Amino acid sequence: MFISTSVNPPFLLRPQASGISENDWGVLSRFWYPVAYEHEVEDTPVAAKLLDVDLVIFRAGDEIGVALDRCPHRHIKLSAGTIVEDGIKCMYHGLVFNTGGQCTFVPSIDPGTKLPATWRLTSFPMQRRYGLVWTCLAQETDRDVPALLRDEDQDASRLLFVKARIWPVSAARQMENFIDLAHLPHIHSESLGGDPDNIIKPGNIEHTEDGIIQTAGYTEVPFGSTPRDVVFTYRVVLPFAIDFIVNDPTGGDQRTCNIPSPRSADECKVFQFSIDTRDMDDARRSLLNGWDIINQEDIGVLRHLAVPDLPLDARHEIHLPADNVSHAYRQRLREFGLGQ
After folding, report:
1. Comparing 24 with 11, which gets the higher pLDDT?
2. Mean of per-residue pLDDT scores for the chain
3. Is residue 202 domain-shared with residue 278, that is, in the same domain?
């Protein structure tokens, strides 16, 4: 009912009830994650959650702010407020905050009063990249937004954005699902196609400075079209981003980026966007437009996951030959000090 008098403000950013261990939270908080599509941040505040921390994203003109979803006056959620010319307005007492977090207006105080500099939101750094709004919760970090596209491909007008959905699994589990070859003909037989009885050969794994690359062949039949042999290239950028390229016999390719933003220990919001590097035939276009169908097929299975935490010790599960990519991914996560 009461905040103890022995607790000194400000509150710790990581909620006590967080399912993410203090060690893992400290490691993950140093990375940048997307919290919204830029085109969704318009004339109303956007609520988000990152590592169990409630955030609000709001726009004032060309500027975008990311802050703790809490008015510092009486702790009302700012995402329930409104957007005004100077920033975001709290619904309770009308306090207005700019995108830098500073309180600029209090209607119950004389307009000539100089407002204290300490009357401000808990704000976080923001970057706009690939049509997404990114933020980082750490006060200091040497990390940056993951490099996913070439400069010439970063024009948001060239990107096709998939509906962002909340998945009932951790970001790490979603990552492993995306790079898992053996599940494709079983879960995605109607969308990607493939023969469930075919042997799935392990992909070729290469370690890079910022992650791993898996290259693998696959025979796909996108949405019932003609079967064709393709090459899948998954470039994993640690901890939670994938640059996925499909090369087909025509010499063209289709590129999709998959970024699960960790909302909590067992939930993530997945942002995906695609870019065409050639004129697409009808089958490939159907596949591109069918990413949301593919995602829902995965969600339908992963909601039955019995153990939500990702084991970083191989002894907790049995493993198939095609799981070599999971071994490589988990190895790199352990190197960050996760799971300790």
Report:
1. 24
2. 90
3. yes
Which domain range does residue 235 map to?
Answer: 155-335
DSSP codes joined into one string, 63-124: EEEEEESS-TTT---GGGSEEETTEEE-TTT--EE-TTSBEEE-TTS-TTPPPPTT-B--EE
- 173 and 44 in a single domain? The answer is no
Estimate to the nearest angstrom the gap between the alpha carbon of 95 and the chain centroid. 31
Q: Helix axis angle, 171-179 relative to 291-302, nearest 10°? A: 120
Q: Give the pLDDT confidence of 244-283 residue by residue, as tens digits.
A: 998 887 766 788 999 999 999 999 999 999 876 555 556 5
Q: Can you state the angle between helices 291-302 and 282-289, rounded to 10 degrees?
A: 50
Task: Give the span between the Cα atoms of 218 and 229, in whole angstroms.
Answer: 6
The answer to whether residue 320 is domain-embedded is yes
Provide the CATH number for the domain around residue 86.
2.102.10.10
Q: Looking at the structure, tell me whether residues 185 and 77 fall in a common domain.
A: no
